[in-house]
Amino acid sequence: MNLVLLLPEDLISSDRARLTGRRLQHVREVHRAGVGDDLTVGLLGGKMGRGRVLRLDDEALELALVLDQEPPPKLPLTLVIALTRPKVLNRVVAAASSLGAARIVLLNAWKVEKAYWSSPKLKEANLREHLILGLEQAKDTVLPELRLARFFRPFVEDELPSLLRGGTGLVAHPGTGGAAPKVLVAPFTLAIGPEGGWIEAEVQSLLKAGLQPLDLGPRILRVETALAALVGRLF
Fold first, then answer.
1. Do residues 183 and 109 share a domain?
2. Cβ of 70: how many Cβ atoms within 10 Å?
3. Taking 80 as the threshold, does the pLDDT of residue 179 lie above it?
4. Are 53 and 82 part of one and the same domain?
5. 212: how many CB neighbours lie within 10 A of its CB?
6. What is the CATH number of the domain that holds 61?
7. 28 and 83 share a domain?
8. Could you tell me if 153 and 217 lie in one domain?
């Protein structure tokens, strides 16, 4: 946790906050802070700054707040990610949040097992928790927009073209031979398939919608690895 992210309900006045639970334990056990120490803090959806420790014990952490810094700007990036296996979904969501994507769409695909959509990891509370963990890692306070698209064709045919309007869209898929365009125009939309890749019909649908092919080479990467590699290449 590089940023202690405060929720509106943590505020006991305009310049004071009280925290319990996970964040209290992290400050005690990892930061090893003490009364009088300053921590980097931010208010969810608001500004960042510092919090001076006024109280730190088994029950609560209390901070005096000075919030006077703007959070880092979001990347003009929409990530369209084929829904991953539940056991890696938390990592992918947190990574996408920490990288600064403005919007994340979790999309169905032929290689996505139907059971994935009923996983408890897709519950709103779990997804929000891991978006917040990404913000804490990256020192950010603004949540990306996150939505679930359970039906591939309606999303690709009806919604994706409007996301691409006036910007650059790329679909990552091995074997296409596509290199990153030399001229990139914001906003950006990046589609990342399952670990085995999109099927050919999906690739053609994505290309028809306006995406351009992008090939990272012959190696098949885990989704979270491909995500970091692609965003690093583009930005």
1. yes
2. 10
3. no
4. no
5. 16
6. 2.40.240.20
7. no
8. yes
Residues 61 and 117 in one domain: no
Looking at the structure, do residues 118 and 160 belong to the same domain, yes or no? yes
Give the whole-angstrom CA distance, residue 160 versus residue 210.
8
Let me know: does 19 contact 4? Beta carbons within 8 Å. Answer: yes
Whole-structure pTM value: 0.92
Q: What are phi and psi of 199, to 5 degrees?
A: -80, 165
Q: Which of 18-22, 65-69, 180-184 has the lowest mean pLDDT?
A: 180-184
Domain range holding 160?
A: 75-234
What is the Cα–Cα distance from 227 to 235, expressed in whole angstroms?
12
- In three-state secondary structure terms, 217 is coil
Nearest CA to 230 among 75, 71, 86?
75
The answer for residues whose C-beta is within 8 angstroms of residue 164's C-beta and 6 or more apart is: 189, 209, 210, 211
Q: Which two tokens stand for residue 209?
A: 């919608």
Distant-in-sequence, close-in-space partners of 17: CB < 8 Å, separation ≥ 6? 6, 10, 11, 41, 51, 62, 63, 65
Q: Measured between alpha carbons, how far is 204 from 198 in angstroms, rounded to an integer?
A: 10
141 and 157 together in one domain: yes
Residues 118-157 have pLDDT tens digits of: 999 999 999 999 999 999 999 999 999 999 999 999 999 9
Domain tally, the chain:
2
